Amino acid sequence: MTTQLLTYIFVGISFGLYIGIALWSRAQSTNDFYVAGKGVHPVANGMATAADWMSAASFLSMAGLIAFLGKDGSVYLMGWTGGYVLLALLLAPYLRKFGKFTVPDFIGERYYSKTARKLAVICLIFISFTYIAGQMRGVGIVFSRFLEVDINTGVIVGMAIVFFYAVLGGMKGITYTQVAQYCVLIFAYLVPAIFISILMTGNPVPQIGFGSTMVDSDIYLLDKLDQVTKDLGFAAYTENVKSNIDIFCITAALMFGTAGLPHVIVRFFTVPSVGAARQSAGYALIFIALLYTTAPAVSAFARMNLIDSIQDQPYSTSPSWFKNWEEIGLIAWKDKNQDGRIQYSSGDALEETKPKYTSDRGDSGERIVENNPNLSNENEIYIDRDIIVLANPEIAQLPGWVIALVAAGGLAAALSTAAGLLLVISSSVSHDLLKKTYMPNITEKQELKYARIAAAVAIGIAGIFGIYPPAFVAQVVAFAFGLAAATFFPALFLGIFYKRLNKEGAIAGMLGGLLFTASYIIYFKFINPGINNSDYWLMGVSPEGIGSFGMILNFILALGISSLTSPPPDEVSDMVDEIRQP
Amino acid sequence: MKRKSDQYWRSNIKIVFSLLIVWFIASFGFGILFSDSLDQIKIGGFKLGFWFAQQGSIYVFVVIIFLYVWLMKRLDRKLSEEEDI
User: Fold this and answer.
1) Does A521 reside within a domain?
2) I want to staple A197 with a disulfide (CB 3.0 to 4.6 A). Which of A7, A47, A209, A274 is the partner?
3) Are A83 and A251 in contact (CB under 8 A)?
4) Cβ contacts of A88 on chain B, cutoff 8 Å
């Protein structure tokens, strides 16, 4: 059987499974739709949280990013797992005790203010849509490369599936499909990693394998990789390039941002008790750690394999994956020294970085790009980092079914996250904006109807993002985490741990954090991208890490303004006492 | 009754605070600030600072959460026993 046929079968089976689960778990009430009836077992919720959390970025892009960043890539590993400690210890149990439906719900009640609630809804929608755009791009890449369908068709199929189980099943449908999606994605991630680990080091555990010696030699893989990367003009793989303060701030922004992401927090509203919420955070992190500790091993293997399989190879005999990805437009080769061989080293191969293909072919059969070669270095290839995980099984020459499995896993990761995000968007619209603010008289049945309509509209918008991907998707990912850290985390944390915080303080803090972080990112990413480097950054902190400063500003404003204005009413104080009890 | 719940809250804060210190040391400490010095020590093919940044910190995070679950369960039990008396 061909790889493509296998991919159709694997993807078809997994999609059938998701639809079956959706039919079985239809939502009957708003309680079902928003929080799955609060009856989800902590282990199941842990899996669902892990699938919800691990997006197309974690599954497809992260290992590739780390492969090229080396030790600097640790910011993602620590940042996207360490946030769960904060979530488990500081937020999840208390928010579960609070026992309502959404994150803006807590902010609106705790700060006794419709303004605070609306501000929270705006932040939530902005963060969630930023995030969704990336998921849809992931779906498009997988479809176009492995099923050889048009990206648009791929996005529409993906949308239809999500529509089916999110609109029908709400949180209940999403939870159980996410459990299935976790199983698919983790299996799809581990199988090729184990294979490659055995091939390269003889050790079946990738986490240990990448610290072992290479097969048939007594040189450690990481030592060899340091050597090879240095020889090609890169920094040594296991050494940092970024400054410590920048690494510190990016890691912090990702951690606090993770803890403040509404679609993750809301998962803890679905378990039966406070104790279950605590446990569930632990299970979620175990399930996440399984992928996150494997990823850096995959990165090291991939970097090594990539260099080995193309360096100084004649283009005409280069491996088929190289040409396949070139056809898709994610690899380009410019033969600067006209020797017909591929040379890979540090620096951008092309001016303007991204290739612009023409319809012509060069002497060796490669696709010709219009870009001028960047003559300040000898690097001849452009490689999109997003392809590393998908190409890895091909690079390591694994059997076709492994490649098919990875495609199904990538789709599971993208769809599960998209569904979770769509749910928080729709529930914040139907519950927080309509029921709690503008249309307080609607019945539960009407609210449920509006929730479904909101979910359908949100899917439509997400699909448009997927078909016409805004060019800024990659640049705004920093937004989602930076803004969550600078707005939600302090408001939630202080809401629980500091009774004296009043609505004036909370609103000022959220607004200040939002405006500061957003303007810093917009300035460096859009208005003046030419000076986006450490000479111009505030204290050497990049836009990716600025959320940490936004968060500190939020804390200062919240505490300062709170102490100058009147304390919150007694009911609020009682409510805080109440959520502090298990 | 009021005093019981204040006491519970204080013990809770103590648990959370001590665990967060461990969290900070394992990630920001070993993985970032002291990472380069720890890199002088090698265990197998891993430099220790690199290992903490890409592996060790994550294992520590998992342990912290389960430790928290266990400590809080004990504290909750103590509270409900005292309330029964």
Assistant:
1) no
2) A209
3) no
4) 65, 68
Using CB atoms, which residue from B31, B33, B45 is nearest to A212? B45
Residues A172 and A41 in one domain: yes
* A439 close to B (CB below 8 A): no
CB contact under 8 A, A89 and B36: no
Contact A85 B12 (CB under 8 A): no
The answer to whether the CB atoms of B28 and A252 lie below 8 A apart is yes
- Minimal CA separation from B85 to chain A, in Å: 18
> Å from B79 to nearest chain A CA?
10
Name the band, by pLDDT with cuts 50, 70 and 90, for residue A242.
confident
| Gap between the Cα atoms of A322 and A391, Å rounded | 9
Residue B45 in contact with partner chain A when CB distance is under 8 A: yes
Q: Which residues contact A528 (CB under 8 A, 6 or more apart)?
A: none
Per DSSP, A581 falls in state: -
Which runs of E-coded beta strand occur in A42-159?
Answer: none
Check: CB of residue A509 under 8 Å from CB of residue A552: no
pLDDT digit of tens for each residue in chain B (85 aa)?
567 788 888 998 999 999 999 999 999 999 888 888 888 888 888 889 889 889 999 999 999 999 999 999 898 888 887 766 5
Residue A340 lies in a domain: yes
My answer on whether A371 and A440 are in the same domain is no
Contact A71 B53 (CB under 8 A): yes
With a cut of 70, say whether residue A576 has pLDDT above it: yes
The answer to whether residue A576 is domain-embedded is no
Residues A240 and A294 placed together within one structural domain of the fold: yes
Domain boundary (A469, A499, A522) is at A469
The alpha-carbon gap from B84 to the nearest alpha carbon of chain A, in Å, equals 15
Mean pLDDT value across residues A469-478: 59
Calpha distance A285→A87 (Å, rounded): 11
Kindly determine whether residue A282 and residue B66, on different chains, have CB atoms separated by under 8 Å: yes
Query: Residue A471: is its pLDDT beyond 60?
Result: no
Which distant-in-sequence residues (6+ apart) come within 8 Å of A109 by Cβ?
A: A98, A100, A575
- Put simply, whether B55 touches A (Cβ < 8 Å) is yes
Number of domains into which chain A is organized: 2
Q: Are residues A406 and A347 in the same domain?
A: no
| pLDDT surpasses 70 at A36 | yes
Q: pLDDT band at residue A569, thresholds of 50, 70 and 90?
A: confident
Q: What is the ipTM of this complex?
A: 0.94
- Taking the domains of chain B in order of start, what are their residue ranges? 2-80
Q: What is the extent of the structural domain holding A114?
A: 3-306+396-469
Helix (H) or strand (E) holding A358: strand A357-361
Same-domain status, A349 and A210: no
Q: How far apart are CA A481 and CA A127, in angstroms?
A: 8
CA distance A134 to chain B (A): 24
**Per-residue pLDDT tens over the stretch A119-168:** 888 888 888 887 887 777 777 777 776 777 777 787 888 888 888 777 77
Q: Do A273 and A155 share a structural domain?
A: yes
Looking at chain A, the whole-number percentage of residues with pLDDT higher than 90 is 13
> Which of A86, A89, A217 to mutate to probe the B interface, most B CBs <10 Å?
A89
